[in-house]
Amino acid sequence: LEKVEVKPTGQSGYTIEIDRGNLKTIGETAKNSLSARAKRLLLISNQKVYGIYGKVVEKSLKSSGYKVLVWLMGEGEKYKSIKSVERALNFMCEEGLERTDAVVALGGGVVGDMAGFAAAIYLRGIPFIQVPTTLLAQIDSSVGGKTGVNTPTGKNLVGAFHQPQSVVIDIKTLETLPRREITAGLCEAVKHGAIGSRELFDLTFNFLKRREEADFIRLIASHCAFKASIVAGDERETIDRVDHRSRRILNFGHTVGHALEAITQYRRFRHGEAVGYGQIAAAEISNRMGLLSHSDLELVITAVNMTGKLPRADDLNVREIISLLKYDKKSVGGHIKWILLEEIGRARIVDGREIDPKIIRDSIRTSLNPGGVRAK
Ligand SMILES: NC(=O)c1ccc[n+]([C@@H]2O[C@H](COP(=O)([O-])OP(=O)(O)OC[C@H]3O[C@@H](n4cnc5c(N)ncnc54)[C@H](O)[C@@H]3O)[C@@H](O)[C@H]2O)c1
Protein backbone atom coordinates (compact mmCIF):
# COMPACT_ATOMS: atom_id res chain seq x y z
CA LEU A 1 0.00 0.00 0.00
CA GLU A 2 1.22 3.48 -0.88
CA LYS A 3 -0.43 6.71 0.08
CA VAL A 4 0.09 10.11 -1.46
CA GLU A 5 -1.24 13.13 0.38
CA VAL A 6 -2.43 16.04 -1.73
CA LYS A 7 -2.90 19.45 -0.20
CA PRO A 8 -4.29 22.12 -2.52
CA THR A 9 -3.78 25.60 -1.08
CA GLY A 10 -6.66 26.89 0.99
CA GLN A 11 -8.54 23.60 0.82
CA SER A 12 -8.63 20.49 2.88
CA GLY A 13 -6.31 17.83 1.54
CA TYR A 14 -7.09 14.33 0.40
CA THR A 15 -5.35 10.99 0.11
CA ILE A 16 -4.55 8.95 -2.98
CA GLU A 17 -4.46 5.31 -1.95
CA ILE A 18 -2.63 2.89 -4.26
CA ASP A 19 -2.79 -0.82 -3.63
CA ARG A 20 -3.69 -4.19 -5.07
CA GLY A 21 -7.20 -5.46 -4.39
CA ASN A 22 -8.34 -2.35 -2.50
CA LEU A 23 -11.59 -1.98 -4.44
CA LYS A 24 -12.83 -4.54 -1.96
CA THR A 25 -12.35 -2.11 0.91
CA ILE A 26 -13.50 1.07 -0.79
CA GLY A 27 -16.42 1.30 1.65
CA GLU A 28 -14.00 1.91 4.51
CA THR A 29 -12.09 4.50 2.49
CA ALA A 30 -15.36 6.27 1.75
CA LYS A 31 -16.24 6.26 5.44
CA ASN A 32 -12.87 7.79 6.29
CA SER A 33 -13.02 10.52 3.69
CA LEU A 34 -16.70 11.52 3.50
CA SER A 35 -18.77 13.35 6.07
CA ALA A 36 -20.56 11.13 8.57
CA ARG A 37 -23.78 12.56 7.18
CA ALA A 38 -23.26 11.02 3.74
CA LYS A 39 -25.95 8.41 3.29
CA ARG A 40 -26.29 7.85 -0.42
CA LEU A 41 -23.59 7.43 -3.03
CA LEU A 42 -24.08 7.74 -6.76
CA LEU A 43 -21.77 5.36 -8.59
CA ILE A 44 -21.06 6.72 -12.08
CA SER A 45 -19.36 4.43 -14.56
CA ASN A 46 -19.85 2.95 -18.02
CA GLN A 47 -21.27 -0.44 -18.94
CA LYS A 48 -17.88 -1.98 -19.65
CA VAL A 49 -16.10 -0.97 -16.45
CA TYR A 50 -19.19 -1.42 -14.31
CA GLY A 51 -19.57 -4.91 -15.78
CA ILE A 52 -16.10 -5.87 -14.54
CA TYR A 53 -15.72 -3.93 -11.28
CA GLY A 54 -19.13 -2.51 -10.40
CA LYS A 55 -20.30 -5.33 -8.15
CA VAL A 56 -17.16 -5.39 -6.00
CA VAL A 57 -17.36 -1.65 -5.44
CA GLU A 58 -21.08 -1.69 -4.75
CA LYS A 59 -20.76 -4.56 -2.30
CA SER A 60 -18.06 -2.84 -0.29
CA LEU A 61 -19.90 0.49 -0.22
CA LYS A 62 -23.10 -1.21 0.88
CA SER A 63 -21.35 -3.18 3.59
CA SER A 64 -20.18 0.15 5.01
CA GLY A 65 -23.80 1.21 5.32
CA TYR A 66 -24.27 3.34 2.20
CA LYS A 67 -27.23 3.23 -0.12
CA VAL A 68 -25.77 2.98 -3.61
CA LEU A 69 -27.39 4.36 -6.74
CA VAL A 70 -25.90 3.60 -10.16
CA TRP A 71 -25.86 5.73 -13.27
CA LEU A 72 -24.02 4.53 -16.37
CA MET A 73 -22.82 6.79 -19.17
CA GLY A 74 -22.06 5.79 -22.75
CA GLU A 75 -18.69 4.32 -23.64
CA GLY A 76 -16.03 6.55 -25.17
CA GLU A 77 -14.85 10.13 -25.54
CA LYS A 78 -17.96 11.24 -27.42
CA TYR A 79 -20.01 10.71 -24.28
CA LYS A 80 -17.82 13.16 -22.34
CA SER A 81 -20.41 15.73 -23.30
CA ILE A 82 -22.81 18.30 -21.94
CA LYS A 83 -25.63 15.93 -22.84
CA SER A 84 -24.21 13.24 -20.51
CA VAL A 85 -23.79 15.81 -17.74
CA GLU A 86 -27.38 16.92 -18.24
CA ARG A 87 -28.63 13.35 -18.01
CA ALA A 88 -26.55 12.64 -14.92
CA LEU A 89 -27.76 15.86 -13.26
CA ASN A 90 -31.37 15.03 -14.04
CA PHE A 91 -30.90 11.65 -12.43
CA MET A 92 -29.36 13.28 -9.35
CA CYS A 93 -32.23 15.77 -9.13
CA GLU A 94 -34.88 13.09 -9.54
CA GLU A 95 -33.28 10.96 -6.85
CA GLY A 96 -32.96 14.01 -4.61
CA LEU A 97 -29.28 13.51 -3.88
CA GLU A 98 -28.31 15.80 -1.02
CA ARG A 99 -25.38 18.10 -0.43
CA THR A 100 -23.74 15.65 1.95
CA ASP A 101 -24.14 12.68 -0.39
CA ALA A 102 -21.39 11.92 -2.88
CA VAL A 103 -20.49 10.74 -6.35
CA VAL A 104 -18.11 7.83 -6.91
CA ALA A 105 -16.49 7.91 -10.36
CA LEU A 106 -15.43 4.41 -11.47
CA GLY A 107 -13.62 4.31 -14.80
CA GLY A 108 -11.02 5.97 -16.99
CA GLY A 109 -10.47 9.67 -17.57
CA VAL A 110 -13.69 10.01 -19.53
CA VAL A 111 -15.84 8.83 -16.64
CA GLY A 112 -13.73 10.72 -14.07
CA ASP A 113 -13.90 14.03 -15.94
CA MET A 114 -17.64 13.82 -16.64
CA ALA A 115 -18.65 12.52 -13.21
CA GLY A 116 -16.35 15.01 -11.47
CA PHE A 117 -17.92 17.85 -13.41
CA ALA A 118 -21.46 16.70 -12.57
CA ALA A 119 -20.40 16.56 -8.89
CA ALA A 120 -18.83 20.03 -9.21
CA ILE A 121 -22.00 21.73 -10.37
CA TYR A 122 -24.82 19.73 -8.77
CA LEU A 123 -26.03 21.87 -5.83
CA ARG A 124 -22.94 24.01 -6.57
CA GLY A 125 -20.71 21.12 -5.68
CA ILE A 126 -21.02 17.85 -3.79
CA PRO A 127 -18.17 15.56 -2.69
CA PHE A 128 -16.78 12.92 -5.00
CA ILE A 129 -14.40 10.01 -4.91
CA GLN A 130 -12.25 9.10 -7.88
CA VAL A 131 -11.70 5.45 -8.67
CA PRO A 132 -9.53 5.56 -11.79
CA THR A 133 -9.25 2.27 -13.69
CA THR A 134 -6.92 3.16 -16.57
CA LEU A 135 -3.21 3.81 -16.18
CA LEU A 136 -3.65 7.29 -17.63
CA ALA A 137 -6.35 8.15 -15.14
CA GLN A 138 -4.30 6.67 -12.29
CA ILE A 139 -1.17 8.70 -12.93
CA ASP A 140 -2.73 11.79 -14.43
CA SER A 141 -6.38 12.69 -14.83
CA SER A 142 -7.56 11.73 -11.34
CA VAL A 143 -4.99 14.05 -9.72
CA GLY A 144 -5.28 17.80 -9.93
CA GLY A 145 -8.96 18.57 -9.71
CA LYS A 146 -9.66 19.36 -13.35
CA THR A 147 -13.08 18.11 -14.39
CA GLY A 148 -15.04 18.82 -17.53
CA VAL A 149 -16.49 17.80 -20.85
CA ASN A 150 -16.01 18.35 -24.58
CA THR A 151 -18.16 20.47 -26.87
CA PRO A 152 -18.56 20.05 -30.64
CA THR A 153 -15.84 22.72 -31.06
CA GLY A 154 -13.15 21.09 -28.99
CA LYS A 155 -11.96 18.97 -26.11
CA ASN A 156 -12.30 19.98 -22.46
CA LEU A 157 -13.70 23.41 -23.27
CA VAL A 158 -16.23 23.37 -20.44
CA GLY A 159 -15.33 22.38 -16.91
CA ALA A 160 -14.58 23.25 -13.33
CA PHE A 161 -11.89 22.73 -10.75
CA HIS A 162 -13.24 20.30 -8.19
CA GLN A 163 -10.98 18.31 -5.87
CA PRO A 164 -12.02 14.79 -4.89
CA GLN A 165 -12.41 13.68 -1.25
CA SER A 166 -10.15 10.76 -2.00
CA VAL A 167 -8.69 8.74 -4.86
CA VAL A 168 -8.70 4.95 -4.72
CA ILE A 169 -6.34 3.19 -7.13
CA ASP A 170 -6.42 -0.60 -7.41
CA ILE A 171 -3.67 -1.81 -9.75
CA LYS A 172 -5.59 -5.05 -10.27
CA THR A 173 -7.86 -3.06 -12.60
CA LEU A 174 -4.93 -2.77 -15.02
CA GLU A 175 -5.13 -6.51 -15.68
CA THR A 176 -8.21 -6.06 -17.86
CA LEU A 177 -7.03 -2.90 -19.57
CA PRO A 178 -6.33 -3.28 -23.33
CA ARG A 179 -2.65 -3.21 -24.29
CA ARG A 180 -2.92 0.10 -26.13
CA GLU A 181 -4.38 1.81 -23.10
CA ILE A 182 -1.35 0.66 -21.10
CA THR A 183 0.98 2.00 -23.81
CA ALA A 184 -0.86 5.33 -23.83
CA GLY A 185 -0.58 5.60 -20.04
CA LEU A 186 3.11 4.74 -20.13
CA CYS A 187 3.70 7.51 -22.70
CA GLU A 188 2.24 9.97 -20.20
CA ALA A 189 4.51 8.45 -17.55
CA VAL A 190 7.55 9.09 -19.76
CA LYS A 191 6.29 12.65 -20.14
CA HIS A 192 6.17 13.17 -16.37
CA GLY A 193 9.70 11.80 -16.06
CA ALA A 194 11.06 13.97 -18.85
CA ILE A 195 9.74 17.18 -17.31
CA GLY A 196 9.75 16.14 -13.65
CA SER A 197 13.12 14.91 -12.51
CA ARG A 198 15.94 12.58 -13.48
CA GLU A 199 14.85 10.34 -10.62
CA LEU A 200 11.28 10.02 -11.88
CA PHE A 201 12.53 9.45 -15.41
CA ASP A 202 14.91 6.70 -14.25
CA LEU A 203 12.21 5.03 -12.20
CA THR A 204 9.93 5.04 -15.25
CA PHE A 205 12.72 3.84 -17.52
CA ASN A 206 13.52 0.94 -15.19
CA PHE A 207 9.87 0.03 -15.02
CA LEU A 208 9.72 -0.07 -18.80
CA LYS A 209 12.76 -2.35 -18.86
CA ARG A 210 11.55 -4.80 -16.22
CA ARG A 211 7.79 -4.56 -16.56
CA GLU A 212 7.18 -6.18 -13.20
CA GLU A 213 3.53 -5.89 -12.32
CA ALA A 214 4.36 -5.44 -8.64
CA ASP A 215 6.29 -2.27 -9.51
CA PHE A 216 3.11 -0.59 -10.69
CA ILE A 217 2.29 0.54 -7.15
CA ARG A 218 5.56 2.45 -6.78
CA LEU A 219 5.39 3.80 -10.32
CA ILE A 220 1.87 5.12 -9.90
CA ALA A 221 2.59 6.56 -6.44
CA SER A 222 5.64 8.44 -7.74
CA HIS A 223 3.73 9.85 -10.67
CA CYS A 224 0.78 10.91 -8.53
CA ALA A 225 3.21 12.63 -6.14
CA PHE A 226 4.83 14.45 -9.04
CA LYS A 227 1.55 15.59 -10.59
CA ALA A 228 0.27 16.63 -7.17
CA SER A 229 3.41 18.70 -6.54
CA ILE A 230 3.04 20.58 -9.80
CA VAL A 231 -0.65 21.16 -9.27
CA ALA A 232 -0.12 22.34 -5.68
CA GLY A 233 2.20 25.05 -6.93
CA ASP A 234 -0.05 26.24 -9.75
CA GLU A 235 -3.56 25.00 -9.24
CA ARG A 236 -5.29 26.99 -11.93
CA GLU A 237 -2.60 26.95 -14.58
CA THR A 238 -1.66 30.61 -14.39
CA ILE A 239 -1.58 31.92 -17.93
CA ASP A 240 1.56 34.06 -17.67
CA ARG A 241 3.73 31.62 -15.77
CA VAL A 242 6.58 30.34 -17.89
CA ASP A 243 8.88 28.85 -15.27
CA HIS A 244 9.92 25.20 -15.25
CA ARG A 245 7.49 24.28 -12.48
CA SER A 246 4.32 25.89 -13.87
CA ARG A 247 1.39 23.57 -14.51
CA ARG A 248 1.74 24.26 -18.17
CA ILE A 249 4.82 22.02 -18.44
CA LEU A 250 2.41 19.08 -18.19
CA ASN A 251 1.63 19.85 -21.82
CA PHE A 252 5.03 18.59 -22.91
CA GLY A 253 4.44 16.68 -26.15
CA HIS A 254 0.91 17.98 -26.51
CA THR A 255 1.44 20.62 -29.19
CA VAL A 256 2.38 18.09 -31.87
CA GLY A 257 0.33 15.35 -30.16
CA HIS A 258 -2.92 17.28 -30.57
CA ALA A 259 -2.14 18.00 -34.21
CA LEU A 260 -1.54 14.28 -34.84
CA GLU A 261 -4.87 13.43 -33.25
CA ALA A 262 -6.68 16.10 -35.26
CA ILE A 263 -5.10 15.22 -38.60
CA THR A 264 -6.20 11.59 -38.17
CA GLN A 265 -9.73 12.63 -37.06
CA TYR A 266 -9.06 11.27 -33.56
CA ARG A 267 -9.30 7.75 -35.00
CA ARG A 268 -5.74 6.51 -35.23
CA PHE A 269 -4.07 7.38 -31.95
CA ARG A 270 -4.97 7.07 -28.34
CA HIS A 271 -4.19 10.47 -26.86
CA GLY A 272 -1.14 9.18 -24.96
CA GLU A 273 0.25 7.56 -28.11
CA ALA A 274 0.07 10.87 -29.96
CA VAL A 275 1.75 12.54 -26.99
CA GLY A 276 4.50 9.93 -27.33
CA TYR A 277 5.31 11.22 -30.81
CA GLY A 278 4.83 14.79 -29.62
CA GLN A 279 7.46 14.34 -26.92
CA ILE A 280 9.98 13.12 -29.43
CA ALA A 281 9.22 16.13 -31.65
CA ALA A 282 9.65 18.54 -28.73
CA ALA A 283 12.88 16.81 -27.66
CA GLU A 284 14.19 17.01 -31.24
CA ILE A 285 13.44 20.74 -31.33
CA SER A 286 15.17 21.16 -27.97
CA ASN A 287 18.23 19.34 -29.25
CA ARG A 288 18.41 21.25 -32.52
CA MET A 289 18.14 24.54 -30.63
CA GLY A 290 21.13 23.53 -28.56
CA LEU A 291 19.15 23.18 -25.34
CA LEU A 292 19.14 19.41 -24.91
CA SER A 293 22.10 17.04 -25.16
CA HIS A 294 22.12 14.31 -27.74
CA SER A 295 22.25 11.59 -25.08
CA ASP A 296 19.16 12.96 -23.29
CA LEU A 297 17.33 13.16 -26.63
CA GLU A 298 18.16 9.51 -27.26
CA LEU A 299 16.88 8.56 -23.81
CA VAL A 300 13.52 10.23 -24.48
CA ILE A 301 13.22 8.44 -27.83
CA THR A 302 14.19 5.08 -26.31
CA ALA A 303 11.73 5.49 -23.44
CA VAL A 304 8.84 6.34 -25.77
CA ASN A 305 9.71 3.37 -27.97
CA MET A 306 9.76 1.09 -24.94
CA THR A 307 6.18 1.96 -23.97
CA GLY A 308 4.84 -0.32 -26.69
CA LYS A 309 4.16 -0.29 -30.38
CA LEU A 310 2.72 3.04 -31.47
CA PRO A 311 0.49 3.34 -34.56
CA ARG A 312 2.53 4.49 -37.55
CA ALA A 313 2.88 8.22 -38.17
CA ASP A 314 5.45 8.33 -40.97
CA ASP A 315 2.74 8.62 -43.64
CA LEU A 316 1.39 11.92 -42.26
CA ASN A 317 1.99 15.22 -43.97
CA VAL A 318 4.34 17.49 -42.00
CA ARG A 319 3.03 20.68 -43.63
CA GLU A 320 -0.52 19.81 -42.59
CA ILE A 321 0.61 19.00 -39.07
CA ILE A 322 2.29 22.40 -38.83
CA SER A 323 -0.80 24.18 -40.09
CA LEU A 324 -2.78 22.53 -37.26
CA LEU A 325 -0.35 23.57 -34.51
CA LYS A 326 -1.85 27.01 -34.17
CA TYR A 327 -5.18 25.53 -33.05
CA ASP A 328 -3.53 24.24 -29.92
CA LYS A 329 -5.88 25.22 -27.11
CA LYS A 330 -2.93 26.13 -24.93
CA SER A 331 -1.68 28.86 -27.23
CA VAL A 332 -1.80 32.34 -25.76
CA GLY A 333 -2.79 35.32 -27.90
CA GLY A 334 -2.50 33.09 -30.96
CA HIS A 335 1.11 32.17 -30.19
CA ILE A 336 2.23 28.67 -29.47
CA LYS A 337 4.13 28.13 -26.27
CA TRP A 338 6.36 25.13 -26.78
CA ILE A 339 7.30 23.03 -23.80
CA LEU A 340 10.90 22.05 -24.47
CA LEU A 341 13.61 20.36 -22.43
CA GLU A 342 16.90 21.71 -21.14
CA GLU A 343 17.74 18.30 -19.78
CA ILE A 344 15.80 15.30 -18.62
CA GLY A 345 13.84 16.50 -15.63
CA ARG A 346 13.88 20.17 -16.52
CA ALA A 347 11.40 21.78 -18.90
CA ARG A 348 11.60 25.19 -20.52
CA ILE A 349 8.68 27.12 -22.02
CA VAL A 350 9.63 28.81 -25.28
CA ASP A 351 7.56 31.15 -27.43
CA GLY A 352 7.05 29.66 -30.90
CA ARG A 353 8.27 32.88 -32.54
CA GLU A 354 11.72 32.23 -31.12
CA ILE A 355 12.10 28.94 -32.96
CA ASP A 356 13.35 28.71 -36.53
CA PRO A 357 10.47 27.21 -38.61
CA LYS A 358 12.96 24.92 -40.32
CA ILE A 359 13.89 23.40 -36.97
CA ILE A 360 10.23 22.76 -36.25
CA ARG A 361 9.70 21.19 -39.67
CA ASP A 362 12.76 18.96 -39.53
CA SER A 363 12.10 17.92 -35.95
CA ILE A 364 8.52 16.89 -36.65
CA ARG A 365 9.60 14.99 -39.75
CA THR A 366 12.24 13.06 -37.81
CA SER A 367 9.90 12.39 -34.88
CA LEU A 368 7.30 10.70 -37.06
CA ASN A 369 9.75 7.91 -37.75
CA PRO A 370 11.49 7.47 -34.39
CA GLY A 371 12.71 3.98 -35.17
CA GLY A 372 14.12 5.01 -38.54
CA VAL A 373 17.67 5.85 -39.54
CA ARG A 374 18.62 9.07 -37.82
CA ALA A 375 20.78 11.77 -39.29
CA LYS A 376 23.51 12.81 -36.88
N1 LIG B 1 -8.72 15.91 -15.75
C1 LIG B 1 -7.48 15.87 -16.16
O1 LIG B 1 -6.60 16.48 -15.57
C2 LIG B 1 -7.13 15.03 -17.35
C3 LIG B 1 -5.79 14.77 -17.64
C4 LIG B 1 -5.50 13.94 -18.71
C5 LIG B 1 -6.53 13.40 -19.47
N2 LIG B 1 -7.82 13.69 -19.17
C6 LIG B 1 -8.94 13.13 -19.95
O2 LIG B 1 -8.95 11.73 -19.79
C7 LIG B 1 -9.63 11.16 -20.90
C8 LIG B 1 -8.92 9.92 -21.35
O3 LIG B 1 -8.92 9.00 -20.29
P1 LIG B 1 -8.50 7.48 -20.51
O4 LIG B 1 -7.27 7.42 -21.29
O5 LIG B 1 -8.56 6.86 -19.18
O6 LIG B 1 -9.61 6.91 -21.49
P2 LIG B 1 -11.07 6.32 -21.27
O7 LIG B 1 -11.69 6.81 -20.03
O8 LIG B 1 -11.79 6.50 -22.54
O9 LIG B 1 -10.77 4.76 -21.08
C9 LIG B 1 -10.21 4.02 -22.13
C10 LIG B 1 -11.01 2.75 -22.41
O10 LIG B 1 -10.71 1.78 -21.43
C11 LIG B 1 -11.93 1.29 -20.85
N3 LIG B 1 -11.56 0.91 -19.49
C12 LIG B 1 -11.37 1.72 -18.44
N4 LIG B 1 -10.89 1.03 -17.41
C13 LIG B 1 -10.80 -0.27 -17.79
C14 LIG B 1 -10.34 -1.46 -17.18
N5 LIG B 1 -9.83 -1.45 -15.94
N6 LIG B 1 -10.39 -2.61 -17.89
C15 LIG B 1 -10.85 -2.62 -19.16
N7 LIG B 1 -11.26 -1.52 -19.81
C16 LIG B 1 -11.24 -0.36 -19.14
C17 LIG B 1 -12.89 2.41 -21.01
O11 LIG B 1 -14.21 1.97 -20.96
C18 LIG B 1 -12.50 2.93 -22.40
O12 LIG B 1 -13.03 2.13 -23.40
C19 LIG B 1 -9.70 12.24 -21.97
O13 LIG B 1 -11.03 12.68 -22.08
C20 LIG B 1 -8.81 13.34 -21.42
O14 LIG B 1 -9.25 14.63 -21.81
C21 LIG B 1 -8.13 14.49 -18.13
Topology:
Elements: E1 2-6, E2 14-19, H1 26-33, E3 40-46, H2 47-63, E4 67-73, H3 82-95, E5 102-107, H4 109-121, E6 128-132, H5 135-141, E7 146-151, E8 154-161, E9 166-170, H6 179-196, H7 198-210, H8 216-233, H9 254-263, H10 271-288, H11 294-306, H12 318-325, E10 337-343, E11 346-351, H13 357-367
Parallel strand pairs: 2-9, 3-4, 3-5, 5-6, 6-9
Antiparallel strand pairs: 1-2, 7-8, 10-11
Briefly, what is this?
The protein has helices at 26-33, 47-63, 82-95, 109-121, 135-141, 179-196, 198-210, 216-233, 254-263, 271-288, 294-306, 318-325, 357-367; strands spanning 2-6, 14-19, 40-46, 67-73, 102-107, 128-132, 146-151, 154-161, 166-170, 337-343, 346-351. The chain has 376 residues and is α/β, with parallel strands linked by helices.
- The gross shape turns out to be globular
Number of strands: 11
For the largest sheet, list the strands in their spatial order.
1-2-9-6-5-3-4
Order of helices and strands: EEHEHEHEHEHEEEHHHHHHHEEH
Distance between the termini: 46 Å
Which distinct ligands sit in these coordinates? Answer: nicotinamide-adenine-dinucleotide
The biggest beta sheet reads:
7 strands, mixed
Low-confidence parts = none
- Estimate what percentage of residues fall within beta strands: 15-25%
Tell me the radius of gyration: 20 Å
**Helicity level:** 40-55%
Summed up, the helix count is: 13
What's the mean pLDDT score?
93
Structural class: alpha/beta
